[in-house]
Amino acid sequence: MSTVEERARLVFSLRQSGITDIHIHSVMESIDRADFIDGHFKNRAYEDVPLPIESGQTISAPTIVAKMTQALELNKKCKVLEVGTGSGYQAAILSKLARRVYTIERIKALAKIAEQRISQYNITNIVITAGDGSLGLPHQAPFDRILLTAAAEDAPSTLLAQLKTGGIMVLPVGQSDATQILLRIRKTEDGLDYEELGNVRFVPLLPGKE
Ligand code: SAH
Fold first, then answer.
1. Phi/psi of residue 134, each to 5°?
2. What is the DSSP letter of 25?
3. Of 3, 30, 75, 122, which has fewest CB within 10 angstroms of its CB?
4. What spacing in Å lies between the alpha carbon of 4 and ligand 1's midpoint?
């Protein structure tokens, strides 16, 4: 469990990076990032850096998780799709601010570990699926919000089709070995509105499942 000081430092770095939503501060204080990291990187859980997790993947830096969460403009009515479960940390945070979170991970072993981590918390509104998230979840669509935590070269049209009108998609776009841009896409009656939210760096969105 994190100390009071570590939690205060986290909120401080969130504020510094422009995260003003106090609901996001308190949710991020209530979900301990150390519970989503194993091995010798666990003791670095409170540093604002991405860290390695199982299967050669990464857990994003806390301020990036917060930034994407804030960009989604969540409310308790939202049905959310996350592509790239990874550690399960981002999904746990989304679950506290949304009605239901569907999250897809292409690496089965990671999906399983994330499920175990989430079960330590009393969270009942997350559904984890092992599979190719670029196909979305047609049976659960449409979604109010869609978040990709792996970088695509462009917003996948299959996922845009599963976003409600009035909905928001947030995703990193760009080549995997270069700087990527975090994009917010609003789906309106008239089409898609794109907004750039700064530079980020994520692992690539890969086709198929492992
Ligand atoms: N949101 C995560 C961080 C994700 S790292 C967290 O909070 O820890 C990105 C993850 O996306 C990796 O685990 C990777 O395996 C997964 N991924 C990449 N392409 C995918 C795809 N097509 N479908 C589902 N998951 C994918």
1. -70, -15
2. H
3. 122
4. 30
Whether ligand 1 lies within 6 angstroms of the CB of 84 is answered as yes
Tokens at 38, concatenated: 């194993």
Q: Is the CB of 137 under 6 A from ligand 1?
A: no
Confirm whether pTM is higher than 0.90: yes
Residue 1 has pLDDT above 70, yes or no: no
Residue carrying structure tokens 């049976």: 139
Q: What is the 3-state secondary structure (H, E, C) of 129-188?
A: EECCHHHCCCCCCCEEEEEECCEECCCCHHHHHCEEEEEEEEEEECCCCCCEEEEEEEEE
- What is the β-pairing status of strands 58-59 and 51-52? antiparallel
Question: Measured in Å, how far apart are the chain's first and last C-alpha atoms?
Answer: 33
Number of residues assigned to the chain = 210
Q: Is 94 helix (H, G, I), strand (E, B) or coil?
A: helix
Query: Which pLDDT belongs to residue 2?
Result: 67
Q: Is 86 in the pocket of ligand 1 (CB under 6 A)?
A: yes
Tokens 């550690």, residue? Answer: 87
* Phi, psi for 185 (deg, rounded to 5): -115, 125
Q: Which residues pair with 127 in a beta bridge?
A: 102
- Burial of 64-86, coded b for 16+ CB within 10 Å and e otherwise, reads bbbbbbbbbebeeebbbbbbbbb
The better pLDDT of the pair 12, 104 is held by 104
pLDDT tens across 94-113, in order? 999 999 999 999 999 999 99
What is the mean predicted confidence (pLDDT) over 39-61? 92
